[in-house]
Give the backbone structure.
Amino acid sequence: MSDTGFLAILIQMVGSTLRVSTPLLFASLGGLMSERSGVVNIALEGMMLIGAFAAATVAFVTHSPWLGAAAGMGAGLLLAACYGLFVIQLRADQIVAGTAINMLAAGITPFLSKIFFESTGSTPSLPLDDRFQSAPIWIAWILVIVCWAWVNFTPTGVWLRFAGEKPEALQSAGISVIRVRWCAVLASGVLAGLGGASLSIFLASSFSRNMTAGRGFMALAALIFGKWRPGPTAVACLLFGFADALQIRLQGVVLWGTEPVPVQFIQILPYIATVLVLAGAVGKSRAPGALGVAFKKG
Amino acid sequence: MMTAQAAVSAVELRGISKFFNGVPANQEIDLQVRAGSIHAIIGENGAGKSTAMKILYGIHRPDAGEILIRGDKKIWSTPAQAISAGIGMVHQHFMLAGPYSALENILLGVEIANSSAPLLKRAFESLARPVDRKGAKARLDRLADQYGLRKIDWDLPIETLPVGVQQRVEILKLLYQEASILILDEPTAVLTPQETEELFSNLKKLTKDGKTILIITHKLKEVMSLADEVTVLRAGRVVGRRAVADTKVEELASLMVGRKVNLKIEPPSKPVPRDPVLEISDLHLSTAPGRARRVHPLEKISFSVRGGEVVGIAGVEGNGQSELLQVLLHPRDFSKRNSASVAHATGSVRCLGRVTLNERTRLRAEEIKLLGVGVIPEDRHREGLLLERSMEENFLLGHQKRSAFSSKGFILRKSLRESALRAIEVYDVRPRVIDLEVEALSGGNQQKLIIAREFECEPKLLIAAQPTRGVDVGAIEFIHRRILEAREKGAGVLLVSSELDEILALADRILVMYAGRIVAQFNRGEASEQVLGLSMGGAHA
């Protein structure tokens, strides 16, 4: 392989990594909001999925990716409001409620696509002009910086951290833990919905059934690997993005012998990366002190 | 002192009542606190002290009654409003987030402290104004100087600071918010006698500066040495109000309990030396590599307990006492072969002649208990009782394999019921309803149930950890008598307690634990509270 060829592949890989890690970035920032406030959010997956569907649908109807993205955020917000009602207001178990939300999203998206488009779970394909070209990448990285500055250096960022670490202290300082958690979970839904939108109207050209394929969980894994901090979490997203980009690049490539490696094996790559990263991170990562514990006033 | 009646009280509660699910926690509480005084609120556990203070601080909204601050009527539903009115509270369990710096903990919420705008508006406003960390630190240094509190490094994570310092951070937080009425809930529970003294002298300085202090406690000696006035609560009602100068410890104790209490324990007879029932030699505990360091290491622990004597382990909580107990009772959990163990123990332990821990042997907790070891656990809710189960079932807990209660793997319900009934009679557990869930019992009665269970099989070694924690004065008396009775019968007792009075009253020998080691040893009568306090603080380490 010549040097110029190698450079071309490298540039291609960098671009591709940045693209495929974008939905993960949004979703893991969403996860960060929720989890730093003390609410476990495995419902990220469902919020992404419904965001992806809403975005693809609205972008198809209005021919505007921006309106599509807004719709994705709105859908994520609605689902997050459902989730918040159960886990914050009614203090339901966060894992059980999160699983329920994910199942709801997985069920309702094909149902709606049947109603709207007479299809079995996908939306019509979007023309190039109705999709994002590179805007989501920029937005995602700007958000990483904003989120980092906000969490670390502003009073409200401190509220968020205390809600997840020691909610009683926040209450005692005169700030409503319930309200802080509500804001955080809703923000989480908006970000996850945006992550879903960047999947269906940026990476792909339509919504397809269960298209998130575990990316919500991967975003959570990145969050844990990044110790619930924006910078390291973004790096973890890049790592997963790279694994994903690599598997796309390696599909159909003859690595050894005469036959290409079966595509199913190659597609395992990002998931193996997730498992390895999590196995390595266990015990080293310290979760917010009150993560997963419902707060009761008094 | 009597002219105070004429002046406006800094704090006044009038007819405050509060119900939780229909159960009264406070009923018609009246309270007047003179500005610039130290007012103690005393009462047994569950008497409603903390509830009353949480109402004053805005955490709970009262169902009836009114709050007056400097004569102004106040109705509030969040602490934010109480803070704006100049009230601050140091909770029994500190409201500090461990991983964050002292500074962040202090600054939490100050941006809203003196504003009455809605929360969201204040949140947005605060975004526009960056936090002036340098200015805040300078102001904290000045405050510390002004009130004679020792300075601290404001950037250190709070969890790395000793509890005494954490408490100072909590107090400084209130001063930083310019609170003029300070509520302290059981502030001395976690302090050494020296730290307590320092705290008290600081509090007195604060009142000279015009601050008003309310202090919740159940330690009567502290009331006498610190407070100007005292209000006594019992079962959610005010049962007495006294000027400290006009009252005695005995009077306060009987007001709290509602009957006469004998606070003095008659000194037990000289111990009759018998064979050792517990021998610990060269016990070490080290954190397993790669594990989070939540376990306090132990170093070179060697001592023995003979039959017929009480050996007391004194020390400020968190100096390895819990770990020592865990290693004694669950040696398997600290084995190198156990991959789940967070720490590894080496050395050797013999209980009643059997090796329970050395390089090769690790007995199971169940086997250790069957040797004839009775255990009063440190945290009865976590380790001693199943709160949602009946008294009868709790009586069986840990004794399932005793031949009296089971045969061929089946529980002998009839014999269990009979023993349980007899035991709660003998040990005076109230109410005498064997099918009642343990949750419904008071702390003292829960502890009596544990004692009934553990003493029924006449243990030869009794391990009693914080046996009177969260127990009312009446039950303390009962528990102490039972422990001394067991000693008279020839049992060896290992008493771990952070209450110095308890150790001084019961123990024949006192070992002081500090930073995971035994740093001092005294015989009965050799050590004063002062000396013990110094070694608990590490002076002999």
DSSP finds 19 helices and 22 strands in chain B. Chain B touches chain A through 38 residues (CB under 8 Å). Residues 2-257 of chain B form a domain with the Rossmann fold fold (CATH 3.40.50.300).
